[in-house]
Each structure stands twice: as structure tokens, then as C-alpha cells.
Amino acid sequence: MDIKNARVFVVEDESIMNTFILGSLRRLGILDLYSFDNGLSAIREISKLKPDLILTDVHMQPMGGIEFVQGLRALVDERLSTIPVIFLSADASKSTVGETLSLGVAGFLVKPPSLAALSAKIELAFKGYKSDFF
User: Fold this and answer.
1) Domain contains 96
2) Is the dihedral of CA 68, 63, 53, 80 positive or negative?
């Protein structure tokens, strides 16, 4: 898939980081963007909007990224349950990274990611690559 044609969910509760991520995606040519401030609001819209990729923070309330991806992977609709996910977090502890990568995601990026790292990770996600850490 050409990333410029992708529909992307950004699930991030910090407004400054949300603005940064959305701006970075626009710089990559991705314009079909949807922003949510927690996993609960994103999971409610997933079947209606059917994103091609999800970028999510780990720590959010009332539903964090890990719980969000667990719910996503449990969906009956395979098209939705297999959407590529990239975690973005300032928490790069071994336990957090390990827990996120065990969910069969496309990877983990430390916030704030460089434009090059974000672009590379998105390209790999669309090629079906799983579980990597930058």
C-alpha cells in the first residue's frame, strides 16, 4: 500500500505529542488521519472507519494502548483484528517494550520519533513486518 493513501488512527492523549505526530504524518503525505485521546474512543470507531494503520501511545486513561490492542486483536472481523499497530511511547523500559511487542504489533518507537524512523516503521508495517524496536 502507498502510505499516502493510508487511513491512519493516532491514539495519543498528550495534545502536544498528538499535534507533532499528526504533523509528521502530514509531512509524509498521509492526509486521511483520525485522532483519539484514548483507546476506548478509538475502539468505538474502528469498525466504522476501518483504518489501515494505528499509531498508539501506551499509557492513557481510561483505556491505554496495550488494552486497546488486546481489544483490537480480540475482534471477530479479521480485517480489523489484524490492522498493523505501531506503539509510540516515552516509556522504553524493557518490560513495557516486551509487553507491547508480544501483541504482534509492527513495532515500537520512542517518542518523539524522527521523521525518518516513523516513515521507515510505517513502510515496514505495510509490508507485514512485525515486532521491532527503534
Assistant:
1) yes
2) positive
State the residue range of the domain holding 49: 3-126
One-letter amino acid of 24: S
**Residue the block writes with cell 498521509:** 30
In a domain, 131, yes or no: no
Which amino acid type is present at position 103? Answer: L
Q: Tell me the residue length of the chain.
A: 134
Nearest by Cα to 115 from 11, 20, 1:
20
Global confidence as pTM: 0.93
pLDDT tens figures, 122-131 = 999 998 876 5
Cα–Cα dist 110/63, whole Å: 20
Cα–Cα distance, 99 to 1 (Å, whole number): 28
